[in-house]
Design a protein that fits this description.
By secondary structure, the chain is of the alpha+beta class. Helix content is 52%, strand content 13%. It is globular and about 85 Å long.
């Protein structure tokens, strides 16, 4: 729905003028954590005088004396090496924005948003995106327009955005408040900067405003019968022919121009999925191919290569050998990373299963990351072996502890193996199954290595190797 509502939303502002509404918004802001704004107030300091602060904020809102503050500009690295600007509002501004979102979001969900828009929406997300992608591929919509909007959050025209909002909202106080948030500007290195365009990434209300703005594009695509999936400002279009996808690309470009935005052509491409691959939301979708044994067609979906580097980096950050912690604490530091990453990888599995429940046969192979999971588990164990040595830890000492601190040991003290977690969700494998599998795998690997060395006439149990084995055995008895 991108038409003007006949019955617009009145009295939105009045719905936030209650202590319980502000307290609910505060709890959400607290749960999302995050740094403080330009006033130096943090989540912790605000909570120390919570009743007083919320009472004072409620009085300002009732007296219409509330004035938003500029956001604090901060930069975070992007995957391409560039820096992404964030705008961090004060805690008070975040609470008010959250209260407004709590009123507007349900209305948008019920009346405004398209079913193929999946970003920053309750009960939507990566699984829903994967479902739509897989469904379109399986139904022969194999020409894909992979589109990127140039600097979307930074380039949204304020007046055009307000024009969209007035199609749904008739509460002048709320519209005026949103305008002031957009125009609040930002502080950087002690200097104030005005904001002529954009909605700051980091603001609580920014995702909702962004979805409302690109909702115009969603329904324009719907009007022309174009299949798509959108996650915030990242989206894909699908068609059965090259001509149809070219037409869809033209409609998209024209609509974005009307919205004051433009396509980043250097990051945008048309993919013929019968020959080409594409990436979306951290996954790589590899084109159709035929199985050698029976000629059946299939395609592959798996985590992107860069995801594994990020996985290792996060583990590395949590296993610094300069810290002296007990084994339980080390495990508690890495398990959430493993669980979070693997659960995201399982998005593809859950999407396939959900589509099957809706009658869609799957030709997607999702278990192409077996070796990467093994590698991650080995990396985690190597990092922990070094980290758990308190007396001058080193890689050499960590390697020597392999016999004592083996795979079975880490399972016993509570480490979650990424390989086991991934396949347990699909097949119900127990940790005992995993431990036995790893033992058998290691025995087979050792036997194969020994046989190859014998074939070459090489001695396996050299004096140096025996010395190292004896050293490891001695450590294992400590």
């Amino acid at each position: 729905m991108n038409q003007e509502l006949k019955l617009k939303w009145h009295s939105v502002y009045g719905q936030i003028l209650f202590e319980r509404k502000l307290h609910q918004a505060w709890l959400q802001v607290k749960e999302n954590k995050g740094a403080g704004g330009i006033d130096g107030e943090t989540i912790e300091s605000y909570e120390k005088k919570l009743d007083e602060n919320l009472g004072q904020l409620l009085r300002k809102l009732r007296d219409k004396a509330y004035v938003p503050s500029p956001v604090r500009r901060r930069y975070i690295p992007k995957k391409n090496g560039k820096m992404r600007p964030l705008g961090i509002p004060n805690i008070e501004d975040r609470i008010v924005q959250q209260a407004i979102v709590n009123v507007l979001q349900p209305k948008c969900e019920e009346h405004i948003f398209h079913r193929w828009s999946c970003g920053y929406r309750p009960n939507y997300g990566a699984k829903r995106v994967a479902q739509i992608i897989l469904w379109n591929i399986e139904t022969d919509h194999n020409f894909i327009y992979d589109c990127d909007i140039r600097g979307f959050f930074d380039n949204i025209p304020h007046k055009k955005l307000m024009g969209v909002l007035t199609k749904y909202i008739a509460d002048g106080t709320v519209l005026d408040m949103i305008w002031k948030w957009l125009k609040a500007g930002y502080m950087e290195e002690g200097k104030y900067h005005e904001a002529d365009y954009g909605t700051p990434q980091g603001g609580v209300i920014s995702p909702l405003l962004a979805n409302l703005y690109l909702n115009e594009l969603d329904w324009k695509l719907e009007e022309h019968g174009i299949r798509f999936v959108r996650y915030a400002d990242d989206f894909l279009l699908f068609a059965k022919t090259e001509e149809a996808i070219q037409t869809a690309a033209g409609i998209t470009s024209e609509t974005l121009q009307e919205l004051g935005l433009e396509v980043a052509m250097e990051k945008t491409k048309i993919v013929n999925f019968k020959d080409d691959d594409f990436d979306f939301l951290g996954f790589t979708f590899e084109h159709w191919r035929e199985r050698k044994k029976d000629g059946k067609k299939y395609f592959v979906a798996k985590p992107k290569e860069s995801t594994w580097k990020d996985f290792k980096q996060k583990v590395k950050e949590k296993t610094r050998k300069t810290l002296t912690l007990n084994k339980k604490t080390w495990i508690e530091r890495v398990n959430p990373i493993i669980r979070g990453k693997v659960n995201y990888f399982l998005t593809l599995y859950h999407a396939v299963e959900e589509n099957k429940r809706h009658g869609q046969e799957s030709h997607c192979f999702i278990n192409a990351c077996k070796n990467q999971l093994f590698e991650i588990d080995g990396y985690v164990r190597r990092r922990l072996r070094v980290a758990m040595i308190h007396d001058h830890p080193s890689q050499r000492k960590g390697y020597a502890m392999t016999t004592k601190w083996n795979n079975e040991f880490f399972v016993r003290i509570g480490l979650i193996p990424a390989f086991w977690l991934y396949y347990e969700a699909q097949y119900g494998y127990t940790l005992e199954n995993y431990t036995q599998y790893m033992k058998d795998k290691q025995k087979a690997k050792s036997a194969s290595r020994l046989a190859k060395m014998k074939e070459r006439g090489q001695e396996y149990y050299t004096p140096e190797r025996v010395r190292k084995m004896q050293y490891a055995q001695r450590l294992a008895t400590y």
